[in-house]
Amino acid sequence: MLVVMWLAAMLAGVVHVLIFCMESLWWTTPQVRARFRQSPEQADATRLFAFNQGFYNLFLAAGALGGLALIASGRTSLGLTLVTWNCASMLAAAVVLAASSPRMMRGAVIQGLAPLIFLIGVLYLRLS
């Protein structure tokens, strides 16, 4: 169970780094515009918003990956708290995305599945 949890937390961090890249670096490219269903005009109009939003995703990734680094260095309690908080925030953001824009359900699942797996692992370990 631990291996699955740590792999899920790592995947969650990597996914959120990629989301950062899409929103903050590649927002107006044709591939990213298509993924987010944006016309060139919409992408230009929302560029600064997406740039800012991308950094939220980067900070969530840094928290999850930083927590894993703390766990690896022996600071298990602090690291687990940090990973759990960031994965819970990632999952909450995915739920908000799914609820507010059902057409973005695929993105919500991509954003939220790995954090959900990690959090289920935490609950399983706490209850067993």
Give your account of this protein's structure.
The protein contains five helices and no strands. The chain starts with a helix and ends with a helix. Helix content is 87%, strand content 0%. Helix 1 packs antiparallel against helix 5. By secondary structure, the protein is mostly helical. The chain is elongated. The longest helix has 33 residues.
Helical residues, percent: over 70%
The biggest sheet amounts to: none
Can you count the beta strands?
Answer: 0
The unreliable regions are none
Strand content: under 5%
Beginning-to-end CA distance, first to last residue: 12 Å
Instruction: Give average pLDDT, whole number.
Output: 96
Shape: elongated
- What is the N-to-C order of secondary-structure elements (H for helix, E for strand)? HHHHH
Helix- and strand-based class? mainly alpha
Gyration radius, rounded: 16 Å
Helical segment count: 5
